[in-house]
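Per your request, structure below.
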């Protein structure tokens, strides 16, 4: 039987009750993935884990794509703006994307905010009609 990444994520969160030995849990989890031949689904499961964690803790999940790891102050600034808009605490996942030329792209739910230089140039061209 194939277990969905979402179901794996939900099961992991339920297993992390604060008393669980995380090393033992991780080992058992990996054994289950191998037994079910789903170890290649690990990236999808981890992505779902973030979504499920945010949902259960009433957080806004924001994926922040940048060329390099953001400084703590930059993350705080982005988090503050998202918190003001959504009126919830924010969980930031900084994802390094070497394909960006410079700047940052923020994705929250189904909205994308392109703060990259390339995105600014594209928006300026649209305004200028070119």
């Amino acid at each position: 039987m194939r277990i969905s990444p979402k179901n794996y994520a939900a099961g992991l969160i339920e297993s992390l009750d604060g008393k669980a030995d995380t090393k033992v849990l991780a080992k058992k989890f990996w054994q289950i993935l191998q037994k079910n031949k789903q170890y290649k689904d690990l990236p999808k499961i981890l992505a779902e884990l973030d979504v499920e964690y945010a949902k259960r803790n009433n957080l806004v999940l924001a994926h922040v794509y940048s060329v390099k790891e953001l400084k703590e102050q930059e993350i705080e600034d982005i988090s503050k703006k998202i918190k003001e808009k959504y009126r919830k605490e924010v969980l930031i996942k900084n994802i390094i994307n070497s394909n960006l030329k410079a700047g940052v792209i923020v994705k929250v739910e189904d909205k994308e905010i392109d703060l990259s230089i390339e995105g600014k140039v594209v928006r300026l061209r649209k305004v200028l009609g070119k």
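The radius of gyration is 18 Å.

Regards,
D.
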